[in-house]
Amino acid sequence: MWSPRLGFAWPLAFALLIPLRAGSSLSAQAEYGIAWQGYVRGDLVDSQQKSDRGYQRFRSDDPKWASQFLLLEAEGMVRRGLYDDALKLLANFNAQTENDESIVRMLAIESVALTHQQQIVLAKEKLRLANALCKTAEYAACGAVLRSNGILAAQAGDFGRARQFFLDTLSFAQSRSDKFLEASATLNLGWIDLQVDKFDEAMDWLRSAQRDCVALRAEDMAERASGNLGWAYFRLGDDERALGLFVEAEKSAARRGSIASELGWISTAGYVYRNAGDSARASQSYLRALALANQIKSKQDIISSLEDLSHASIDAGKLDDADNYLKQLDPLILGGSNMLDVLDVALARGRLAALRRDDSHAESMFREVDKDPVSDASMRLGSEHELARLFEIEGHAEQADRTYRTALTTFESARDQLKSEDSKLPFLANATSIYDDYIHFLVTQNRADEALHIADQSRAQTLAQGLGVTGKMSQLETLAFNPEAIARKTNATLLFYWLGEKRSYLWVITAKKTALFPLPPHREIAQTIERYRKTLLGFQDPLENANADGLALFRMLVAPASSLLPPGANVVVLSDGELNRLNFETLIVPAPQPHYFIEDSNVVSAPSLHLLAAANFAEPCDRRLLLFGDAVSPNPDYPELPMAAAEMKQVAQHFASRDQTVFARERATALAYLAVNPQQFAYIHFVAHGVASPTDPLDSAIILSRATAAEDSFKLHAREIIQHPLHARLVTISACYGSGTRSYAGEGLVGLAWAFLRAGAHNVIGALWEANDESTAQLMGALYQGLERGMPPSAALRQAKLSLLHSHSEFRKPFYWAPFQMYTGL
């Protein structure tokens, strides 16, 4: 699905500190200060009321102060989105009796209100006058003029020029120690970088703005910084985190009576609903936004809402409704200065024409959007995807293939601009639908091997790049791709899955052949997994009643490969989507009598074929162990583990004393791990609590002893783990949710296990759900007994699990033995 652009320029602030003049009335000065502080804090309704009272009180006795109250009231109106009201109020400003600084301030306010009403010619004239006055003297109000120039340039889509104006505003504010103007400029710079897809830079600006706004107690600007961070997360593909920020920002704006902000956050929430395929809910959001935009007579917000409604209507197949919205847009964008609006309407018209099989018109519209230099990355990606699907429908296979590849190149170019792991992890979600359509296209063209190649290139990109397996990985490079050779290298049968919207696929790869099997759609598989997980986590034994979901998942996911799976086979599962939350060992094989899949095969998980191809499976020549655990409880949320000391003793007894480095109790700290040079150890084992962050997986952490007085000094975070290279044969995270709880498109579950793979571990054992203290101690003892006997880690873990499964205790249930999963990396 096309990821829409931000269609409004409202996340901006418009005021500056006004110096008090010598000789001013103390009463006026005090009252103005109170109204001003309310303005800074974002209490705009209250500030506006106090400003109006001040204006009425002093308009006869002190006209100079009355003018300042009037200007402050107008600024508050603009921040609330009451542009028409602000312009009417400013009609009472008597420029003939005012000094140049007040005139400059008035012109800056007017220009912003006019810009939002799309009265561009008038806005430019106001700024021309203000710029001329600022050339004669450096008034404090000239900072607002710089910012107003930036707002006008941004409205016209000239983001490079706008950025320079905002940088100049920032310098102006810093030279005068104007913290409010500085926070506003920083917020605007973050917004501008969002428009040009510089997400890392945008998030830096926005976080800085948020800190400054909180310090100033500027609630509305802090809200805008937070909401724009939500927009950054949305554009990066992290819809879940984005929606939370949008909803909170909307509540804040409604509470403060800021209609412009409220309608903006309502619209952005609609984008998340669109991405989730809920066009009805998205349309409801856009209709609410349109009503508010009409209420404040904001032409740009009306345009944006109508654009959004046209796309949502097309998504829902309501083509006549889409037509109606586009007709309303025609006179609004005619002769307008914002080319992005013109292109967005062209994209909508192309989508509409394609659905009506007016193919030539659709192609023309898509090419117009794709070729225009003003188009941002999301627009080009959307137009190229639509064009590829159009060629596919028309039966022009070569053109479709070429255009799908062009779209993936556009996506990769955008991804290459990202610098941080946090930004790269969710980004593939922006191209999942393109990959899905292209893979399905290749399969229908009897090009299953190429489809597998493309599917694999979408996997573990962040992990592979972090490990240096690839440099600048291009989706279109012709790489040596030999799945059968990878199966021979791993001595395993590889099960590679792709979950698609309309149809899913399984490639079964053996040393001799690769076979493709169609599977049910993503939704059907995901719903069955969710039901089965509830059974597993409910302390039940699914074998007792031959659980229908366990049987169904085996029939869907594994049975097609049965003829290619010899007894006792090594199986490497390359999962996708919700499959990452499923332990395949728990699937129920129906014959000769119901039993778990672990009885038949040795199952491990791997992130991608290209990582398996690069893996080094040579056995380490040493057995050095790094053992952490039995930590001192840092607070009541993480009580001490009764069996931790016993588990550590069981693990240590399988290693010579000279090969052990043990950190227990007070010594088991995050700082100790970071300082011990973990890359020198072949085995690393943690016995501790673990926490998985669903919103920010790199904040997942192993809970150890408190190292310092710092609040989180007892946490070894995933983002710290990836900064310390490893060569370990095996890292074992004997903790709850060591595998993580958040699955990212292409990367799988991201959490502690992913972090250790990213650091360079060859194999990692992590938990998919809460681990029981007592059963885990038994499992780990059996695991290391197998390792001491020379078994490979995967075989040793399977043997340990089978020892619990074949017992007559409560621990035979999958809840106790199945949370721990083996992940194979390099």
Summarize the structure in words:
It is a single chain. With 826 residues, the chain is of the alpha/beta class. It has 35 helices and 18 strands. The strands form five sheets. It has a six-stranded mixed sheet with strand order 9-8-10-14-17-18, sandwiched between helices.
Please state the overall shape, judged from the principal axes of the Cα atoms.
Answer: globular
Strand order of the largest sheet: 9-8-10-14-17-18
Radius of gyration, in angstroms, nearest whole number: 31 Å
Low-confidence stretches: 1-25, 471-479, 737-749
Helix content: 55-70%
- Classify the beta-strand content into a percent band: 5-15%
Structural class: alpha/beta
Number of H- or I-type helical stretches: 35
Distance between the termini: 34 Å
Beta strands, count = 18
**For the report, how would you describe the main beta sheet?**
6 strands, mixed
Output mean pLDDT.
Answer: 85
List keywords for this structure.
single chain, 826 residues, alpha/beta, 6-stranded mixed beta sheet, 5-stranded mixed beta sheet, 35 helices, 56% helix
Summarize the model shown:
56% of the residues lie in helices and 10% in strands.
List the helices and strands and how they pair.
Blueprint: H1 26-41, H2 44-58, H3 63-80, H4 83-90, H5 100-116, H6 120-136, H7 142-155, H8 159-175, H9 179-195, H10 199-216, H11 219-235, H12 239-256, H13 259-275, H14 279-296, H15 299-315, H16 319-333, H17 339-355, H18 359-371, H19 377-394, H20 397-416, H21 421-427, H22 432-444, H23 448-457, H24 461-467, H25 483-490, E1 493-498, E2 504-509, E3 514-519, H26 522-537, H27 548-557, E4 570-574, E5 588-589, E6 595-596, E7 602-605, H28 609-614, E8 625-631, H29 644-652, E9 660-665, H30 670-675, E10 683-687, E11 689-691, E12 701-703, E13 715-717, H31 718-721, E14 730-734, E15 742-744, E16 748-750, H32 752-759, E17 763-767, H33 773-788, H34 793-805, H35 814-817, E18 820-824
Parallel strand pairs: 1-4, 4-7, 8-9, 8-10, 10-14, 14-17
Antiparallel strand pairs: 1-2, 2-3, 5-6, 11-12, 12-13, 15-16, 17-18
